[in-house]
């Protein structure tokens, strides 16, 4: 039988040999990688920059505005060139002043120091009396604050605080209203010196009290005060200082009426300096402005004035039933009891306050109590900004006497 099949199933064909493909080359097979590019030789170093160019780069280097190459070139040059190194140090110090973290506001005592330096070299022909210097300094400091604020800030709300009937009282006004208040009360001093009254002829018919004059000024204004009040207030303060400077020594004892009491002119201007500082701080708080306390010598005199007024104030509170009666210890030659007031910090010192007689002087030998306060804190108490119960940092001795003196200090405040 013909036509049979081969072993691979195909009819009449020869068997085909099968081939298995070989393995693929690996990815890292060097024979199949593209040939490496030739490596370029390193570039020759750049020629050094000329001295003139390096000098011109010192300002940019001080400001850290140079490129890395320029910075390296300048710093290498500074190691070998002394004049450029000195100039670079000067420029770096100047840049440090541009980036200071301190406040840019002028030192409030700058005017006083400049005037002191000028007068030390060439004394004024008509110097300001020493007792008028605190008023001159505080009005100038407040005026510097007022020059810095904008028109809108003159209408910023200000809360005036004082102590009345053993509780804190307050009154809301504006920055311009505070300056009007200061001007109206300064008018008491103007009237005593026969100067123009800021309230005009109507001021002479008012009771000579700070509150009455202030209310008259505020109510007489046709509209809320604006920054226009600054110029007449500043002119008035300049006139007061100029007048007392030309008047001579005898003017210091002239009486200035305050309604229920009188003050000598020298004490009255010191009291006005105190009010100017206190209300300057009220304004500074309202417009977020830094405001420092007075110079230590001026603050000491303000504290001394408050202490001298305390015995009479304490006697008045006794008459009104607001303080414990005086002890029957005042005999011939004896000043009675005393309270030792120790004021610490700026303007500090030691005072002995007579407790039983407004005419007596305090004596260390008869001390029955001691109170310690910071100088600025004592002034805040006298201004009615701190409750008496929270004022004293240290108390020792007769608790009743301490309470009466602290409340009497607070009652010195007023609108």
UniProtKB/TrEMBL annotation:
The keyword Transcription regulation applies. SUPFAM superfamilies: DinB/YfiT-like putative metalloenzymes. Residues 35-50 have a biased composition (Pro residues). Residues 55-85 form the Putative zinc-finger domain. Residues 1-34 have a biased composition (Basic and acidic residues). Pfam families: MDMPI_N (PF11716), zf-HC2 (PF13490). Residues 1-51 are annotated as: Disordered. InterPro entries: Anti_sigma_zinc_sf (IPR041916), DinB/YfiT-like (IPR034660), MDMPI_metal-binding (IPR024344), Znf_put (IPR027383). Residues 136-284 form the Mycothiol-dependent maleylpyruvate isomerase metal-binding domain. It comes from the Bacteria. The keyword Cell cycle does not apply. Keywords: Transcription, Transcription regulation. This is Zf-HC2 domain-containing protein.
């Amino acid at each position: 039988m013909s036509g049979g099949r081969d072993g691979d199933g195909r009819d009449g064909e020869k068997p085909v040999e099968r081939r298995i493909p070989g393995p693929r080359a690996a990815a890292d097979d060097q024979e199949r990688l593209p040939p490496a590019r030739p490596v370029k030789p390193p570039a020759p170093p750049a020629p050094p920059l000329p001295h003139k160019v390096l000098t011109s780069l010192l300002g940019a280097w001080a400001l850290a505005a140079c490129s890395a190459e320029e910075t390296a070139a300048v710093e290498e040059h500074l190691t070998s060139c002394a004049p450029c190194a000195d100039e670079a140090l000067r420029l770096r110090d100047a840049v440090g002043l541009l980036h200071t973290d301190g406040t840019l506001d002028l030192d409030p005592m700058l005017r006083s120091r400049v005037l002191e330096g000028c007068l030390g070299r060439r004394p004024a022909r008509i110097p300001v009396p020493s007792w008028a210097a605190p008023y001159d300094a505080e009005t100038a400091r407040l005026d510097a604050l007022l020059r810095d604020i904008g028109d809108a800030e003159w209408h910023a709300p200000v809360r005036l605080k004082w102590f009345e009937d053993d509780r804190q009282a307050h009154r809301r006004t504006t920055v311009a209203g505070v300056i009007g208040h200061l001007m109206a009360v300064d008018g008491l001093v103007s009237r005593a010196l026969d100067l123009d009254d800021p309230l005009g002829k109507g001021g002479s018919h008012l009771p000579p009290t700070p509150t009455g004059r202030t209310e008259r000024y505020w109510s007489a204004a046709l509209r809320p005060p604006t920054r226009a009040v600054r110029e007449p207030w500043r002119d008035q303060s300049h006139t007061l200082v100029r007048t007392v400077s030309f008047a001579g020594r005898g003017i210091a004892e002239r009486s200035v009426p305050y309604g229920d009491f009188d003050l000598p002119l020298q004490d009255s201007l010191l009291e006005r300096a105190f009010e100017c500082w206190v209300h300057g701080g009220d304004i500074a708080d309202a417009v977020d402005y830094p405001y420092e306390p007075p110079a230590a010598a001026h603050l000491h005199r303000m504290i001394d004035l408050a202490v001298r007024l305390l015995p009479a104030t304490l006697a008045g509170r006794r008459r009104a039933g607001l303080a414990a009666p005086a002890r029957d210890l005042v005999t011939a030659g004896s000043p009675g009891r005393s309270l030792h007031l120790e004021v610490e910090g700026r303007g500090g010192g030691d005072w002995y306050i007579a407790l039983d007689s407004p005419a007596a002087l305090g004596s260390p030998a008869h001390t029955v109590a001691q109170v310690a306060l910071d100088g600025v804190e004592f002034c805040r108490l006298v201004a009615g900004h701190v409750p008496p119960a929270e004022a004293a940092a240290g108390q020792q001795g007769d608790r009743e006497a301490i309470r009466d003196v602290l409340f009497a200090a607070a009652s010195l405040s007023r609108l």
